[in-house]
Amino acid sequence: MARIALDAPLSEALGSKSAFLGRLEKLGITTVRDLLWHFPVRYEDFSKIYKINDLEPGQEATICGVVDDINTKRAWRRGMAITEALITDDTGSIRAVWFNQPYIANAMGVGKTANLSGKISRSREGEPYFSNPAYEIAHDGAEPKHTARLVPVYPETKGLTSRGLRFIIQKIFEASPPLVEWIPKDILARERLPELSRAIRAIHFPDTIDRALAAKKRFAFEELFLLQLHNVNQKLKRAERTAPRVAADIEKIKAMLAALPFALTQSQKRSLWEIMQDMEKTRPMNRLLQGDVGSGKTVVAALAAVIAAENGIQTAFMAPTEILARQHFETMKKICATIAARTQPVIGLMTGSGAVIFYENDVEAKISKKDLGKKIADGGVAIVFGTHALIEKSVSFKKLGLAVVDEQHRFGVRQRAALQAASKTKNGIVPHLLSMSATPIPRTLMLTVFGDLDCSLITELPAGRHPIETKIVGLRERAGAYDFIRRQIKEGRQAFVICPRVEPTDAENAAAAASRRMRISVHSKTAGGFGMFEAADRRALQDVKSVKEEYEKLSKKIFPGLRVAFLHGRMKPKEKEAAMQNFKDGKTDILVATSVVEVGVDIPNASIMMIEGANRFGLAQLYQFRGRVGRGAHRSYCFLMADAGSAAAGARAKAIVSAKNGFELAEADLRLRGPGEFFGVAQSGFSDAAMEAVRNPLLVKQSREAAADILKKDPYLLRAPLLKEKFAAFEASIHWE
Ligand code: ADP
Ligand code: MG
Asked: CA-CA distance, 345 to 223, in Å (whole number)?
């Protein structure tokens, strides 16, 4: 085959009629590059050749022998073909059996020398034999592909096994051009990583497992390295930009704090101080304010916004949902009412559903979107609350100087990049950026995905809060839990019941399950796996509690005398807000909801959080749910209702019960589920390799240092043109995908 370009479509390399094309496409492989970058998930070690006499049942082994006999029979069961062979080496003979692969008899042939690799089974008579072994005819001088070596096992698809993939990958690898290294040599040397073309060879055709692992590490490193270059570069670029200076008048701030109905905690004060110090500079702030749910982040951000307003600078205060945007608006109203009238900023709320409110001198008024937009544009509103549409839909500000983004952790690298790009104002001035997150982010993730941020931590809860009692509730304890809720409500409290989905099993769920099954079957090697998972999925789906069903059950059967309401994401924004408002106002006792209440909603009177199907949520999510209660002075409880879950789900529930703090939980979540799950639905923008790597703090650290080091010496990468090119492509993918 002639040399073929990396970006060439596989139809060119394999011929447009190849039956493999469609199957490869199912794996997302359409070009030569895609195929070479289709990495094994693991290796089977068949590198040692055993003597037939030494084989033991139960062992995995490779032998080399001569085919003494081979033939195929039809079995009694209709359609089943059984191929049997007898292989002999200089120590003895062994039988091999294959099911439904009649072509093997032709491929092997009596008298040929063959390698067999696989598991040794024990026959009814107690004799060892090979069952469905990998086989390969030994040709003079040819390297074995499937046996007698470390054999890569790939993500597979229907009609394309690892065996097939090995064939195609070797063929294409031999025809591909030399791969050009783009990581500078000194970095490779320092990190002891193999150079690109060696790494590609080693990952597909390793001599030793160490070489395969070194190759894997290289590919993980390169991705982290690009990400870190992005982070470091972002930080450097930000430092060159200008943001409006916000002068902090200490006396005024003190007076403001004194007027608040409570004293700030130590870490709230420290965080506010760090924020003020950043905003006093004309270099734009990019800070993350991290703290447990209820630790009082909103107040800190709101104070920063008020101080900005005193300097004639506008703030855009953004939340992921309308309910939250409204809540922040309400919090700000309260703060406005307590601080001195002279400093009271004019605030507005603008949401997609058209809820537009304007607040000035303790008077609240409805206003049209257009009119509020005009006021924002001429500087008549100091602080505007809303969802991210505020920035994305280009509301234009007269002098936007601070952008506050709540629950930033829900956004992946790409969304964050988009946010930063969008928040540039016309005259090239960028606002200070303050992100808030209640999800404790593990250090490794902090340094990768959020690596361009400075960080302030709120480490303590306001005084007088009780820890929340958390309990895993088994099937038999359910009735007791309901009784407990009844008693709490009698005492005047309220309860949340969270369900994993809105409706009972429906077409959409079936589709989701089907796609999950696909993914599982890709990774499961056993033929029986498919049917097994299918049944498990069906069962699991029937078990998943839905808001609608639970609402019916609780309102009619369990708590007929109580006021039960529901809330989910498919309701109209107006209905959602009404449901939330009623709960807030104490007009309902029990709110049955989906994860829409996940973030930030503040109901101090709620004392019970019951989570159905707790095993379906990530730790970060459970942690958020739990934080919905215990926000007032009342002792609060969290019930984790497990349905027939997996072992991992059990481990998660235990982690949340036993974890001492949020960081511990976050580390556990990362360990148990990986960063993709950690972020929930939002794309983390990572490949599998990088996902693994993020769990490796040392590699994260090395990649970060390497990135900082090279940008310090060569900020525009002029001496590393290939890296520069690669990095530009990476940046483009972050911005446009
Ligand atoms: P977060 O956004 O971190 O989840 P909030 O800022 O919404 O937390 O605060 C939760 C509740 O605690 C709010 O009702 C707020 O008014 C109150 N709060 C904030 N800081 C303090 C404090 N230092 N002392 C007492 N209550 C506080
Ligand atoms: Mg909050």
From this structure: 45
**Domain extent at residue 338:** 250-458
Nearest bound ligand to the CA of residue 406:
2
Q: Which residues pair with 447 in a beta bridge?
A: none
Q: Are residues 494 and 349 in the same domain?
A: no
Nearest CA to ligand 1 atom 10: 294
3-state secondary structure of 244: coil
Is residue 399 a contact partner of residue 379, using CB atoms and an 8 Å limit? yes
Question: 264 lies in a domain?
Answer: yes
Q: For residue 646, name the pLDDT band (cuts at 50, 70, 90).
A: very low
Q: With a cut of 70, say whether residue 736 has pLDDT above it.
A: no
Does 11 share its domain with 99? no
Ligand 1 within 6 A of CB of 297:
yes
Ligand 2 mean position to 356 CA, how many Å? 21
Q: Is 535 within the bounds of a domain? A: yes
Give the pLDDT confidence score for residue 342 in this predicted structure: 60
Instruction: Determine how many CB atoms are found less than 10 A away from the CB of residue 245.
Output: 14
Domain boundary among 628, 660, 692: 660
Same domain, 629 and 603: yes
One domain, residues 442 and 567: no
User: What pLDDT does 639 receive?
Assistant: 93
How far apart are the C-alpha atoms of 263 and 132, rounded to whole Å? 72
Whole-number Å distance between alpha carbons of 728 and 732? 6
- The string over 343-371, giving b where at least 16 C-beta atoms fall within 10 Å of a residue's C-beta and e elsewhere, is ebbbbbbbbeeebbbbbbeeeeeebeeee
Nearest to 354 by CA among 99, 52, 577, 607: 577
Task: State pLDDT tens for residues 206-235.
Answer: 888 889 989 989 998 998 899 889 889 888
Domain final residue pick, 630, 660, 690 = 660
pLDDT in tens, 81-95: 889 999 998 888 999
Does the C-beta of 640 come closer than 6 Å to ligand 1? no
Cβ atoms < 10 Å from Cβ of 540? 20
Nearest residue (by CA) to ligand 1, atom 20, is 296
How far, in Å, from the CA of 38 to the mean position of ligand 2?
42
Are 498 and 640 in a shared domain? yes
Query: Same domain for 480 and 423?
Result: no
Q: What is the pLDDT of residue 308?
A: 94
For residue 294 and ligand 1, the question of a CB distance below 6 A is answered with: yes
- In CATH, what number is assigned to the domain containing residue 115? 2.40.50.140
Instruction: Judge whether residue 29 has pLDDT over 70.
Output: yes
What's the total number of domains in the chain? Answer: 4
Which protein residue's CA is at the shortest distance from atom 19 of ligand 1? 296
What is the model's pTM?
0.66
Q: What CATH number does residue 357 fall under?
A: 3.40.50.300
Whether residue 569 sits in one domain with residue 527: yes
692 in a domain, yes or no? no
Distance, CA of 283 to CA of 107 (rounded, Å): 71
- Answer whether 438 contacts ligand 1 (Cβ < 6 A): yes
| Ligand 1, atom 9, residue with closest C-alpha | 296
Residues 611 and 527 in one domain: yes
Atom from ligand 1 closest to the CA of residue 264: 23
Pocket test for ligand 1, best of 269, 331, 602, 636 (most atoms within 8 A of CB): 602
Could you say which ligand is closest to the alpha carbon of residue 264? 1
Q: Domain for residue 418, yes or no?
A: yes
Tokens of 511: 């589709």
pLDDT at 200 (0 to 100): 95
